[in-house]
Amino acid sequence: MKKIEHIGIAVKDLQAANELYAKLLQTESYKTEKVKSEGVETSFFKTGESKIELLAATSEDSAVAKFIAKRGEGIHHIAFEVDDIKAEMKRLKAEGFELISKRPKKGADNKLVAFLHPKSANGVLVELCEEIKDGEEYIPIGDEVWEDL
Ligand SMILES: CC[C@H](C(=O)O)C(=O)SCCNC(=O)CCNC(=O)[C@H](O)C(C)(C)COP(=O)(O)OP(=O)(O)OC[C@H]1O[C@@H](n2cnc3c(N)ncnc32)[C@H](O)[C@@H]1OP(=O)(O)O
Ligand SMILES: [Co+2]
C-alpha cells in the first residue's frame, strides 16, 4: 500500500457538506463526479498527500444509501493507493481477506477500484485504488482473466 489515497465520508446533502468541508479544510472541492455503477455522486478535496471524498447516494439501493439508512452520516471507507491492483487483490485474497468483487471497477477520479469486506478488516470498509495511467483505457475484462484471483 503506497499511501492513504482518500477517506470516504457518506453525506445526505452533497451541497451542504461541500460548503462545510470547504470551511473546515479552507480549500474548495476540486471536482465532483457521479459514479453511476455505484449510485453515488462524489466530491473531492485535496488534503496534503491524501484527499477527502464526500459521497452522496444517487439511488435508493446504493451502498451509501444503505449505509446512511443504517448508520447515519459518517466515515464510510478508507482508500489506499496501490501500484498494481490485480497483484494486490491476489495477495490479499491469499492472505484471507474477502474481496467484495472479483475484479476491479472503474471508480471516480480516474481510478480502478476494488473493495475488501469490512468483516475482513476489523469493521473497516477498505478500498484499493490504482491510478489509470495516461492513455490507458480500462476495458472491463472477462472473468476468465481474473479467474485466478
Ligand atoms: C467507486 C466510486 C468511489 C471511489 O472512491 O472511486 C467510491 O468509493 S464508491 C463507495 C461506495 N461503494 C461501496 O461501498 C462498494 C463496496 N461496498 C459494498 O459492497 C457494500 O456496502 C458492503 C458489502 C460493504 C455492505 O453491503 P451489505 O448489502 O452487506 O450491507 P449491510 O448493511 O448488510 O452490511 C453488512 C455488514 O457490513 C457492515 N457495513 C456495511 N457498510 C459498511 C462500511 N462502509 N463500513 C463498515 N461496515 C460496514 C454493516 O454494518 C453490516 O454489519 P453487521 O455487523 O452485520 O450489521
Ligand atoms: Co472511495
From TrEMBL:
GO BP term, example: L-methylmalonyl-CoA metabolic process
Keywords: Isomerase, Metal-binding
Alphabetical list of InterPro entries matching this protein: Glyas_Bleomycin-R_OHBP_Dase, MeMalonyl-CoA_epimerase, MMCE/EMCE_epimerase, VOC_core
Domain VOC: start-end pairs: 3-131
CDD domains: MMCE (cd07249)
Statement: the UniProt record of this protein carries the keyword Disulfide bond: no
Family of the protein in this entry: Belongs to the methylmalonyl-CoA epimerase family.
Name of the protein in question: Methylmalonyl-CoA epimerase
Species the sequence originates in: Salinimicrobium profundisediminis
UniProt gene name: mce
